Structures are given as structure tokens and as C-alpha cells.
């Protein structure tokens, strides 16, 4: 009642109801891969919430401070205030360690979810027109996420993160001409400077998160404006979106996902130790720990630094040190390639049309091959960041592991990319529906050059209606409003329009937009509820039969065992 | 106003499962509060919160899957080519006679003003650089070491040659600059007859002092492999051969560790006779 009144009062002042009705009825595609970005979003929310709590206890300063608290080995020692306050936060603030570990796990999962989301977008071609701008926003957010992950990792001023920071400083320093200046501009002096922790703190809790919030909003606004792309299927065209409505089903599902993300993060934060800085000790310029591995999302850079040979070049008497190539050049090329990919692909394929239907990875073998190649390359780099651990586990010299990885990082991506390209081509040309169904003949055919004039599969939904028998639009009045639905009898698909409209004309117009060329039929009243899906019907039928048989068997057995007078109901009642 | 339709009936058991999930969630939340109140326990707090959120998640998921329609809706997509009559109208609205974008001269002046402001706004960034200290390249070339600077141990004690036993490395720091990032060095005693290349900074009867910072990415090369006389960097596994003037022999480092020339003063303490033979740590553009 109160909600009703409040809603009406707001509506009278802001005229919200037309907007709200459309927004509530917004359709989201029902495919699990569309939830990956949401995992990133909800991890970000968790990061902000836990991060705000941490700022209340963290002291971002390099000044000396004596730690006094319940962690005995460090009790009474003088360290930087950043380190001392992080140890205090972990040992002496109730729930502090839980929140700190949850924050760290959330950061790892945040970047992982962004990456998996990006991979999905890449392999399905969702970055194509009109969504290139959103791709650019997304890649920028990935970059900001990496940067903020790194500053957050460095803030506690512990020994391990001090090493990482020193490595990054060395990489920045390797930039020709301006390297040392950039380091001084960032740190306010030579490493380790007193200004670096306060500056990283401001960037970590204010600048980058504010940028991320702005970009997340832009990302979502563009999705709402452009609507979702969708996988091809019966009833799905370049002119519609098929799935569930935002309210009620998608909202419930999305909130459930939010709760899942928080549940997993708190379980990890409570049970799985991460970054125990009190074991590493405070950062000191003459100390190091071994083994020293960074968080997973910077491991590719660390692996590249390990693998790159000791090649340095001199330009006109100046030095270009080795870390420049695996550090600056590789990172720069990676993100440039990510930014440029949609435009590069459009330039290569000459495909300037807008796409609302997604590709399957097989539809575009070159893209799939390039993607698998890049993923393999970065995968080998991540493995290379643990070469000392691998060497220890396998009991072989670390330099043998290094040489093997140096070869693998060049060979494996090419092999994997070529294999992915061939498999995608075999799947596209052959009749196999899945990888497991591929025959040798399919693969052999895939190896051959493309047949001259091999036509791209014609987009089925773009065919005129007379080539698609059995499809029709049904419109009907429902109280004071009009509704319509799409039926494709051969495919067994019925799709209801997502919202009621006021006039028949409006209904017909929206139906024409969604299904151009499909015949319209006005029916007198609401049609019978759509039959349940085939699978569910079959399951229910078989379930009932099975239940009946079980009960029958059980009853017969019982009757045989018991006295003849005992009665048992032998038929399945459902 | 209008009569509300009755709530749709729920399939049997669904309501009960959802309510149980939410009750489990509430129990988790209470458990968290109680654990916190009893003094806190990281693992139990984490488990309780996980149960609280997992209960919510399961309840909401069942609700979303069983009590509301899933799938089966279609929404039209207008596409992104604007209606043909919109474009000229928008263009006309933007380029009306009184439109600001048609006054080219004023726009040019405005652009000039904004550019000047933008460039001026960059100047305060200079304050991020330290004013009172040496410029980056010079700061990078120099360390606190120099003629007459005594070598201190990690404990702050001055060092005599006899304090460096054979078979181990001793970290050393310059007196008056122990906190500097580029100053850490190590002293080690080797057998002079095993030198394959004489140390560029000289040696005192086999005692040599080198920078501790890896020439690859600046990590301290803390791992000493006694028998082979090699120093290994734990970050990227560069290794340096101390018998060959700390030459890099494996891994990604390309340059030797800079040596520190040392002498014994009248009191018997070790003093540097100059700075490192080269700037320590990672390479940079102006490094000779």
C-alpha cells in the first residue's frame, strides 16, 4: 500500500511510469555466458564495500611507527606506518583480516571475470558494430583494473610487494628518454620514496575507482541503449532480442548471482589465506624473498621478464635495457592490439554492417585462431612466472625450465592457433555439431583451400517470409491493451512480446520491427498458454511413468510379502 | 483502485525450499554477529557470511527459476540507423543562423583560450617532481657511496676486513645513507687464485664489495651459491659469477654488478674509496 502510494507520488512528479514499464520489461538473453560481466560488476561492488572498511584502519604513510599488538614476532618493532597498520588490521582489528582477505580475493576474481568476459566477447564477435565503443570502454576498464590491483598489492609496504614495485619501477625506468623522469614524477624521488605510498593510496582509493565507476556506468548505459546481442536461434533475428524480462525473472537471477559472488568471496576470505604480509616482513631495499611470484594478473609481465634474453641495445650512446621489450613493448602492444582489434577485423573483412546476432567461434576461424594463439601465448607467460617453482617441483635446473619455456612461448601459440583455426574450419564446413563428432574427412577438408565462391551461409532470418512457412504473428486485445506473440510451428517456438501496448497499430508496428515480413493474424482473445518445452514435457512424462512403475513394483512386492488382506495402492497417482 | 489479481499458486514444495534458504541465510547472519561479539574468529566469520549469502543466493535462484516465467519473451530492436527525416532536422537544429558553431572566428579564439588553459593546467604537475633534490638522471647516477664513506653492517656497526668470514656474504650500507634504495651492497671473501677476471673495483686480499641490486630489474640478489661463487636473483633468476667480476652468466640480466672500491683506514675499518663502478640497479637511458 505504502509502496503503491510512493510510486504514484513519484510518478506524478517525474512521469516515470512509461520509462519504468519499458525498463522493467527489458529483455535479457538466457545464456550463461551473459552473466560473466556481471560477476566482474559484483566483484567490483564487493571491492568498494570491503575497501572502504579497510581505509578506516589503514595508515598510508612511510613514516616510522612502532607496531604493538598480538602478533608477537613483530611486537615492538619499528616499521613503516603502512606496514604496521596492515599488520594491526590483520591481527588486532576484529573481522579486519576477513575483510582484508576478502578484498584481495575479490580483486583476483574481478580481473579474472573481466578477462573471461572479454574472451567471450572476442570469440563471439560481440565487439562488432555497433558495440566497438563499448569494447574500448571495456578494455580501458581492464587496464585500470590491472593498475589498481597492482597499487593495492603494493600498499601494505611488505617485502614481497616491495620487490614487485621495484620491478615495475625498473620497467618504467627502461623507457627511452623519459624513463627516469617518469619514475620521479610518479614517486616524487628515487625508489623507495616517502611519497610513493600516499600517492599510490590516492590513486588506489580515489582516482582509479572513480574512473571505474564512471566507465562501468557508461558500459551499462551503452548496453541498455544498444540492447544485448544474442546467439542465433529460432525466432531470433537481427531485429530483436529473445530471452527473459528484467523484472521479475532476470532481477531475481541477477541478485542471486550477486549473493553467490559475495558468498564465494567471503568463503575464500575466511578460509583461504592470501598475502600473509606478517610472514614476509616489511619492505627493505636490501632484502628479498624466494620464491617471489606476483598476483596472477601481472604474472604474464613477470613471466615475459624472465623469458626475455639478456639483449640490450645502444642507441647513439644511450642504453635501451632488456626489461623495455618484455615490459613496456609487450604491454603496449597487447593493449594496442586489444583496442585496435574491432577496427582491424572490420578493415580485413570489409564487414561494416551492424550485428545483433553473435558468431559462434567456428563461424570465424581466423578470429578464433588468433584468439587461441594469443591466449596460449599469455598462458605460457603466466606459467613462466613460476619457473623457479616448476624447477623445484620437477627437481631440474631452473635454466633448463627457462630454455624449454623460451621455445614453448614461440612454438606453442602457433601450433594452438593453427589447430584452433583448422578445427573451426572443419566444424564450419562439415556436418559435425560438436568437436567430438568431427571425422577425419572433415579435418582433411578443412586443410584444403577455400573453394572458390564458397558462399557465406545466408542469414536465415533475413529471408523473405514466404520462404519460411509456419511462422506468424498473432495479435489480440487483452482488456484495454494489445499483445502479440510470434509462433514458429515447425521449430516449436512461441515468443511473447515483452510488454503490453495501447493500440493494435502499435502492436503491429513493434511486431513488424522484430519480425519483418512475417504475416500478421489478429485473433479474438488470448490464445491458450504455450505448451511446456519439449524437454520438460518429456521429462515430466517419463518421470511420471517411472514413478508409477516404481510404486507399482513396490506395492506388488509389499503385497507379496504381507498378508493377503493388506491393501496397497498400486497405481501412480500423478 | 483496480482489483488486484490473486497471487499465482506456487508449485508444491517450492515455497518451502525458498523459505528454508532464507532462514539459513538469517542463521548465517546471526552466526556472524555472534562470532564477532564473542571476540571474532576469521574462519567462522567467513563461513557464517558465506552461508548467509549462499542462502540468499539459493532462495533467490529458486524463486527466479520456479515462480516466474523464464525465457519466451521477445523485444524488438530498432537498429541504429536513425530515421531518414531525423538527420536533416538535427543538422538544421545545430546549424541555425544563430548557432554558436557557425561563428568560426569566435570559435577559434575560444579554442585558443581553452588550449592555453589546458596547457597552463599541466604546469602544477611539475610539483610532483622533487624540487629540493637532484634531477632524476643525476640522482640515478649517484649513490651515497663516495671517497671515505665507511661500510656499516645491517646492525649499523662499522666493518673490519676480519668481520667478513669466508663462505658467506655480508650486507653493507654506507654510513649516513643506510636507507637509500640504491646503496645496498655486499662484501664477500673469495680466493684470489680463482678469479677468472680481476674485479674492476679491485680487491683486498680476496675481499670484494659489489652492489646488491640486480642489473636486470633491481631486485636484491640475495641468494649466494657458495661453492660456485655465484649470486642468484630470486625475482627472475639472473645469476652472476663473482669470480668473473660479477658477470651475468644466466637469466635475463645483461650487465655486471657494479663493484665498490674499498680500502682499510687507519682505524682498521673498511671505507669506500669512490662510488660504484657504474650506476647500480636496472638500466636506464642515460646510463653510460
TrEMBL record, chain B:
<keyword id="KW-0479">Metal-binding</keyword>
<keyword id="KW-0411">Iron-sulfur</keyword>
<dbReference type="InterPro" id="IPR014349">
    <property type="entry name" value="Rieske_Fe-S_prot"/>
</dbReference>
<feature type="transmembrane region" description="Helical">
    <location>
        <begin position="18"/>
        <end position="39"/>
    </location>
</feature>
<comment type="function">
    <text>Iron-sulfur subunit of the cytochrome bc1 complex, an essential component of the respiratory electron transport chain required for ATP synthesis. The bc1 complex catalyzes the oxidation of menaquinol and the reduction of cytochrome c in the respiratory chain. The bc1 complex operates through a Q-cycle mechanism that couples electron transfer to generation of the proton gradient that drives ATP synthesis.</text>
</comment>
<dbReference type="GO" id="GO:0004497">
    <property type="term" value="F:monooxygenase activity"/>
</dbReference>
<keyword id="KW-1133">Transmembrane helix</keyword>
<keyword id="KW-0001">2Fe-2S</keyword>
<dbReference type="GO" id="GO:0046872">
    <property type="term" value="F:metal ion binding"/>
</dbReference>
<dbReference type="Pfam" id="PF00355">
    <property type="entry name" value="Rieske"/>
</dbReference>
<feature type="domain" description="Rieske">
    <location>
        <begin position="205"/>
        <end position="271"/>
    </location>
</feature>
<keyword id="KW-0812">Transmembrane</keyword>
<dbReference type="InterPro" id="IPR036922">
    <property type="entry name" value="Rieske_2Fe-2S_sf"/>
</dbReference>
<protein>
    <recommendedName>
        <fullName>Cytochrome bc1 complex Rieske iron-sulfur subunit</fullName>
    </recommendedName>
</protein>
<keyword id="KW-0408">Iron</keyword>
<keyword id="KW-0472">Membrane</keyword>
<dbReference type="InterPro" id="IPR017941">
    <property type="entry name" value="Rieske_2Fe-2S"/>
</dbReference>
<feature type="transmembrane region" description="Helical">
    <location>
        <begin position="46"/>
        <end position="64"/>
    </location>
</feature>
<keyword id="KW-1015">Disulfide bond</keyword>
<dbReference type="GO" id="GO:0051537">
    <property type="term" value="F:2 iron, 2 sulfur cluster binding"/>
</dbReference>
<dbReference type="GO" id="GO:0016705">
    <property type="term" value="F:oxidoreductase activity, acting on paired donors, with incorporation or reduction of molecular oxygen"/>
</dbReference>
<feature type="transmembrane region" description="Helical">
    <location>
        <begin position="105"/>
        <end position="125"/>
    </location>
</feature>
Amino acid at each position: 500500500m505504502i509502496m503503491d502510494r510512493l510510486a504514484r507520488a513519484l510518478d506524478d512528479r517525474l512521469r516515470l511510469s512509461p520509462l519504468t514499464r519499458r525498463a522493467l520489461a527489458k529483455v535479457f538473453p538466457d545464456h550463461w555466458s551473459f552473466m560473466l560481466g556481471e560477476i566482474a560488476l559484483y566483484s567490483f561492488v564487493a571491492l568498494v564495500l570491503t575497501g572502504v572498511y579497510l581505509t578506516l584502519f589503514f595508515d598510508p604513510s612511510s613514516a616510522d611507527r612502532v607496531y604493538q599488538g598480538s602478533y608477537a614476532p613483530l611486537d615492538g618493532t619499528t616499521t613503516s606506518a603502512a606496514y604496521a597498520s596492515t599488520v594491526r588490521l590483520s591481527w588486532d582489528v576484529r573481522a579486519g583480516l576477513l575483510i582484508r582477505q576478502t578484498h584481495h580475493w575479490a580483486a583476483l576474481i574481478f580481473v579474472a571475470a573481466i578477462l573471461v568476459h572479454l574472451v567471450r566477447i572476442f570469440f563471439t564477435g560481440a565487439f562488432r558494430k555497433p558495440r566497438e565503443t563499448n569494447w574500448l570502454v571495456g578494455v580501458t576498464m581492464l587496464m585500470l583494473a590491472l593498475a589498481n590491483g597492482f597499487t593495492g598489492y603494493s600498499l601494505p609496504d611488505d617485502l614481497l610487494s616491495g620487490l614487485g614495485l621495484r620491478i615495475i619501477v625498473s620497467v618504467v625506468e627502461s623507457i627511452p628518454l623519459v624513463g627516469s623522469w617518469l619514475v620521479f614524477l610518479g614517486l616524487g624521488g628515487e625508489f623507495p620514496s616517502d611519497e610513493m605510498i600516499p600517492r599510490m593510496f590516492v590513486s588506489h582509493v580515489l582516482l582509479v575507482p572513480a574512473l571505474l565507476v564512471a566507465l562501468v556506468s557508461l558500459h551499462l548505459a551503452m548496453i541498455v541503449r544498444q540492447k544485448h546481442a544474442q546467439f542465433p536461434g529460432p525466432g531470433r533475428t537481427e531485429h530483436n532480442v529473445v530471452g527473459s524480462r528484467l523484472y521479475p525473472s532476470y532481477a531475481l537471477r541477477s541478485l542471486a548471482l550477486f549473493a553467490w559472488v559475495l558468498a564465494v568471496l567471503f568463503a575464500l576470505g575466511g578460509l583461504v589465506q592470501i598475502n600473509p604480509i606478517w610472514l614476509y616482513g616489511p619492505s627493505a631495499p636490501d632484502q628479498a624473498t624466494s620464491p617471489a611470484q606476483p598476483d596472477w594478473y601481472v604474472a604474464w609481465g613477470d613471466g615475459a621478464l624472465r623469458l626475455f634474453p639478456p639483449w640490450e641495445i645502444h642507441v647513439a650512446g644511450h642504453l635501451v635495457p632488456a626489461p623495455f621489450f618484455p615490459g613496456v613493448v609487450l604491454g603496449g602492444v597487447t593493449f594496442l592490439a586489444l583496442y585496435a582489434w574491432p577496427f582491424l577485423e572490420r578493415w580485413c573483412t570489409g564487414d561494416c554492417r551492424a550485428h545483433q546476432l553473435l558468431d559462434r567461434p567456428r563461424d570465424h576461424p581466423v578470429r578464433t585462431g588468433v584468439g587461441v594463439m594469443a591466449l596460449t601465448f599469455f598462458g605460457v607467460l603466466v606459467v613462466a612466472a613460476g619457473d623457479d617453482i616448476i624447477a623445484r617441483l620437477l627437481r631440474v635446473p631452473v635454466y633448463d625450465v627457462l630454455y624449454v619455456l623460451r621455445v614453448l612461448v614461440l612454438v606453442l601459440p602457433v601450433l594452438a592457433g593453427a589447430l584452433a583455426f583448422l578445427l573451426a574450419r572443419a566444424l564450419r564446413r562439415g556436418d559435425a555439431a560438436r568437436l567430438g563428432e568431427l571425422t577425419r574427412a572433415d579435418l582433411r577438408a578443412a586443410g584444403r583451400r577455400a573453394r572458390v565462391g564458397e558462399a557465406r551461409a545466408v542469414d536465415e532470418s533475413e529471408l523473405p517470409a514466404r520462404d519460411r512457412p509456419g511462422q506468424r504473428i498473432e495479435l489480440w486485445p487483452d482488456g484495454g491493451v494489445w499483445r502479440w506473440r510470434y509462433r514458429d510451428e515447425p521449430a516449436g517456438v512461441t515468443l511473447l512480446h515483452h510488454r503490453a501496448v495501447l493500440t493494435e497499430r502499435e502492436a503491429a508496428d513493434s511486431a513488424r520491427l522484430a519480425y519483418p515480413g512475417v504475416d500478421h493474424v489478429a485473433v479474438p482473445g488470448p490464445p491458450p498458454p504455450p505448451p511446456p518445452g519439449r524437454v520438460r514435457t518429456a521429462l515430466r512424462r517419463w518421470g511420471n511413468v517411472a514413478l508409477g512403475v516404481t510404486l507399482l513394483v513396490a506395492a506388488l512386492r509389499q503385497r507379496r510379502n504381507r498378508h493377503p488382506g493388506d491393501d496397497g495402492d498400486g497405481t501412480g497417482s500423478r | 483502485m483496480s482489483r488486484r489479481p490473486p497471487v499465482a499458486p506456487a508449485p508444491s514444495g517450492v515455497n518451502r525450499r525458498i523459505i528454508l534458504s532464507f532462514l539459513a541465510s538469517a542463521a548465517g547472519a546471526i552466526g556472524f554477529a555472534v562470532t564477532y561479539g564473542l571476540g571474532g574468529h576469521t574462519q567462522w566469520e567467513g563461513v557464517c557470511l558465506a552461508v548467509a549469502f549462499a542462502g540468499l543466493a539459493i532462495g533467490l535462484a529458486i524463486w527466479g527459476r520456479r515462480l516466474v516465467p523464464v525465457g519466451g519473451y521477445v523485444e524488438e530492436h530498432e537498429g541504429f540507423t536513425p530515421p531518414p527525416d531525423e538527420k536533416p532536422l538535427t543538422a538544421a537544429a545545430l546549424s541555425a543562423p544563430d548557432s554558436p558553431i557557425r561563428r568560426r572566428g569566435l570559435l577559434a579564439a575560444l579554442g585558443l583560450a581553452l588550449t592555453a588553459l589546458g596547457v597552463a593546467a599541466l604546469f602544477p604537475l611539475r610539483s610532483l617532481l622533487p624540487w629540493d633534490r637532484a634531477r632524476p638522471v643525476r640522482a640515478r647516477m649517484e649513490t651515497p657511496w663516495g671517497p671515505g664513506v665507511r661500510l656499516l653492517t645491517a646492525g649499523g656497526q662499522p666493518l673490519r676486513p676480519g668481520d667478513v668470514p669466508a663462505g658467506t656474504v655480508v650486507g653493507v650500507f654506507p654510513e649516513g645513507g643506510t636507507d637509500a634504495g640504491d646503496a645496498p651492497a655486499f662484501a664477500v671473501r673469495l680466493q684470489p687464485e680463482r678469479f677468472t677476471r680481476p674485479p674492476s673495483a679491485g680487491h683486498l686480499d680476496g675481499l670484494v664489495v659489489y652492489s646488491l641490486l640486480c642489473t636486470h630489474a633491481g631486485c636484491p640478489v640475495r641468494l649466494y651459491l657458495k661453492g660456485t661463487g655465484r649470486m642468484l636473483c630470486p625475482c627472475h633468476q639472473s645469476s652472476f659469477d663473482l669470480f668473473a667480476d660479477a658477470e651475468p652468466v644466466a637469466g635475463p640480466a645483461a650487465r655486471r654488478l657494479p663493484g665498490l672500491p674499498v680500502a682499510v683506514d687507519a682505524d682498521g675499518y673498511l671505507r669506500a674509496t669512490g662510488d660504484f663502478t657504474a650506476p647500480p640497479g636496472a638500466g636506464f637511458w642515460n646510463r653510460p
